[in-house]
Amino acid sequence: MPVTIRQALSAGAESLSVQGIETPGLDASLLLAFVLNKNRSSLIAAAADSITEESLEAFHRLIERRLAGECVAYITGKKEFYGLEFKVNPSVLVPRPETETLVEAALRLTGGSDTPIRVLDLCTGSGAAAIALKHTIPELEVWATDISGEALETAKTNAARLLSPNSITFLQGNLYDAFQPSMMPPYPFSIIVNNPPYIPSAELSMLPAEVQKEPVIALNGGSEGLDIIKKIIFRAPEFLSSGGFLLLEADPRQMNKISALLKEAGFSDIQTHNDLSGRERVIEGRKKQYRGSNP
User: Fold this and answer.
1) pLDDT tens digits for 97-154?
2) pTM tops 0.85
3) Which CATH number goes with the domain that contains 152?
């Protein structure tokens, strides 16, 4: 007897639910939509249609991969972020809704300037934040860096798909070290954004199985989760214009310590921005404003 899309979805979701997958129905529908080359809306509309045995077997294979701890985004090779579809793979973190808070916070700072607004995205990964900013405001001058060459290739692929050619300048290197003296921008950045590694080392083994399959270099923030964040904060004034802003995504539990680090580095107007769940997710600081020349 032919199997319908509805029946396949129900069986797939049940298999995932039994194994404790948090969003079994969503995951099953995304995987089956991928197999059938449909979006979720058309999948639901065609729920009574039957599917071929070949497609059903392909769906079962993807369900098995999900049960083995592989996330849906890596299985399908794509993830939506800020209304855009990004290519993802195990060389990059999967873009998450929480990081949209970082993009929104940066966008609020882009108005009212008489000079070109230059943005730097550190630890760019898939390029999600940098590309979302440039896609929303094409006039921005956006630079992005990452220590991983494979991650940068993924980011470049996404930029080529989603933006006009050469819209973002990508550089490989460890944070600010990506800027060799000959590559220094002709004027400082107005905004630095980043979603750095901020998971304390001791907590890595407690992360969900699918998260543990993401690149550890993009997760491990050292003993307190602040090793990379400290490096970002204390060198940021060298790269920011007078009155420029530094925005960091981090764990809500770290915000008080990060605020103290920002103050120690000379930042003022420190504030946090909540994600959709109401948790402090992004912290913002402003470099001291100078009159006259722009240190």
Assistant:
1) 999 999 999 999 987 555 679 999 999 999 999 999 999 999 999 999 999 999 999 9
2) yes
3) 3.40.50.150
**Predicted confidence (pLDDT) at residue 22 exceeds the cutoff of 90:** no
Indicate whether 40 pLDDT > 90.
no
Residue 185 has pLDDT above 80, yes or no: no
Give one DSSP letter per residue of 187-211, joined into a string. S-EEEEEE----B-GGGGGGS-HHH
Check the CA dihedral 149-151-152-156 and report its sign: positive
Task: Give the integer Cα–Cα distance in Å for 119 and 143.
Answer: 6
DSSP state of 139: T
Neighbouring CB atoms inside 10 A of 107's CB total 15
* Chain center to CA of 189: 20
The CA distance from 23 to 27, in Å, is 6
Query: For residue 78, what is the DSSP state?
Result: E
291, part of any domain: no
Neighbours of 48 (CB within 10 A): 9
Phi/psi at 223 (5° precision): -60, -40
Model pLDDT, residue 292: 52
What's the one-letter identity of residue 107? L
Q: Are residues 191 and 150 in the same domain?
A: yes
| 52 within 8 A of 10, measured Cβ to Cβ | no
| Unique residue bearing structure tokens 């939509």 | 33
* 148-163 tens-digit pLDDT: 999 999 999 999 999 9
Name residues whose C-beta falls within 8 Å of residue 112's C-beta, 6 or more positions apart in sequence.
none
Residues 122 and 235 both lie in one domain? yes
Where in the sequence is the domain holding 18, given as residue range(s)? 3-68
